[in-house]
Design goal:
alpha/beta; about 15% strand
């Protein structure tokens, strides 16, 4: 009973901090409540997020604000075609001492931080993109034969422009799978856009202040993993992920001929963590089937690909995922 009481107190304290964090973020990010929520979910789960949206939708502003509010050391890398892996990871340089001796010294790259913004990640070459693979999965990098640990916590929030594809390199499936969520950033509604232009074209702009620090964020991430999930919800997660995966006995008929590759076990893991984080953010202690329905799209959309014939017929992943969600969870509104 004492342990249960301690957990309840921890949940209440974390919930209060999350409310304060969202209010602080709202000072600088007008509207986009779902985008903010999903980005916080990715970080609370200890994962990474891929923000996909047209230019000018405050993606960079959101990441900068999160770095401040969460009390994390944040760095930004602008990905370009000529960016090299050493520009991200760092490199060894040969230095000459006062006594004339020479020795190599490692200079940390910008990846040695707690929150890395990879801006327009698909503009870098595959060789440079691959520099992030080990870091995103293992929280360490290998340089000059040595493994170097990254600061804790470590998160990557990458941005991608879905419109302008000239001179870009599509992210490989292995890297896409390392993003916990794909967060689609849409245009604001009229009321939000009006508030944006009034708030950002004056003499002063609102500033954000820290609510979390690294230690309290890590504690919140551990708390997420302790929240209970009902057996019925676990079964819905398995139903959904396995139905979206071609080549198994549980494959949905609509997926069998349309999808060339589907979600692996990481998708189920991501959904299991994400629904807990969403419940906590919304002030609930136990996640439900509605959380599975709400987060299925950002968990699955970047882990599936339509075959050529399905694309030629005009099928879309959005519609297919909405159908799978509706049948697996009974959530008609998921579409």
């Amino acid at each position: 009973m004492a342990e249960s009481g301690e957990m309840m107190a921890e949940i209440e304290a974390t919930g209060a901090r999350l409310v304060a964090a969202r209010e602080m973020i709202a000072r600088r990010i007008v509207g986009q409540e779902q985008v903010v929520e999903q980005t916080l979910i990715a970080i609370l789960c200890g994962g990474h997020g891929l923000l996909v949206g047209a230019p000018g939708l405050a993606k960079t502003r959101l990441v900068e604000t999160l770095g401040t509010v969460l009390g994390l050391v944040a760095h930004r890398i602008q990905f370009t075609p000529d960016l090299m892996p050493a520009d991200i990871l760092g490199a060894e340089v040969l230095e000459t001492g006062a006594d004339g001796t020479r020795a190599f010294r490692f200079i940390d790259g910008p990846i040695f931080c707690q929150l890395l913004m990879a801006d327009e990640i698909n503009r870098a070459s595959p060789r440079t993109q691959s520099a992030l693979l080990q870091a995103m999965q293992e929280r360490e990098v290998s340089v000059a034969g040595q493994r170097r640990a990254l600061p804790a916590p470590f998160h990557v929030l990458a941005t991608q422009n879905p419109i302008e594809q000239e001179g870009t390199y599509p992210l490989p499936e292995a890297q896409l799978d390392r993003f916990l969520l794909q967060i689609d950033v849409g245009y604001p509604d009229r009321a939000s856009e009006r508030e944006i232009i009034l708030a950002t074209t004056g003499v002063e702009e609102a500033s954000a202040e820290p609510v979390f620090d690294a230690a309290s964020l890590i504690a919140a991430q551990r708390l997420i993993r302790r929240l209970p999930v009902g057996e019925a919800v676990v079964e819905r997660i398995l139903d959904l992920v396995r139905a979206a995966r071609p080549g198994t006995e549980d494959t949905h008929p609509a997926v069998r001929d349309a999808v060339s590759w589907g979600p692996g076990p990481r998708a189920a893991q991501a959904l299991m963590l994400a629904i807990r984080a969403r419940a906590l953010i919304q002030g609930r202690l136990v996640p439900g089937v509605e959380d599975v329905a709400a987060l299925a799209h950002p968990v699955l959309i970047h882990r599936m690909a339509l075959g050529f014939a399905a694309r030629a017929e005009g099928q879309t992943l959005d519609a297919l995922i909405a159908r799978l969600v509706g049948e697996a969870t009974g959530a008609e509104a998921a579409a």
